[in-house]
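Fold this sequence, please.
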Amino acid sequence: MNRKEKADLIDALHSTFSDAAIVVVTSQSGMTVAEVEKLRAAMRDAKTRYKVTKNRLARLALKGTQYEVLDDVFKGITAIATSSDPVETAKATTKFANDNDKFSVVAGAMNGRLLMPDQLVQLSKMPPIEELRAKLIGLLQAPAQKVAGVMSAPAAKLVRVLPEPGSSLARVLSARGQQG
């Protein structure tokens, strides 16, 4: 690989790091071609980009990004998983690590914070972002629905108390109104 190719690769990795919501650094050793294909399919299903990296180039590409905290974890045979959905990426990498002893999660980072493997496991147990958004919207709408219910309650109670037209109570009240 010549200098130009290395510079292009560093720029591409830097762009990947800059655009990602999460970066998970993984280690793999002795995986068969079939296992690697299964891993790549799992990453695609999770909408996660997965790339084997050269450690020195990856460390250079980290500079100036929120993922500089990962600088020390690039040792041995490493690869990176990046995505805009932190939960799905954490789920995919930790599940594959649990299912395959030749693959492990080294560390991750999100919002400039280093995440250890146990923290990534906890992150993987969170519900998907769409579900979290739906719950948040439900929580925000609930007070408005309660206020609307309280505001309409007095009118509803008044309507329930008033006698129906033509009922005996309505005739008595009408007759009293005409007398008075």
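Residues 37 and 88 are 19 Å apart (CA to CA). Helices lie at 3-19, 33-45, 55-62, 86-99, 117-124, 129-161, 168-179.
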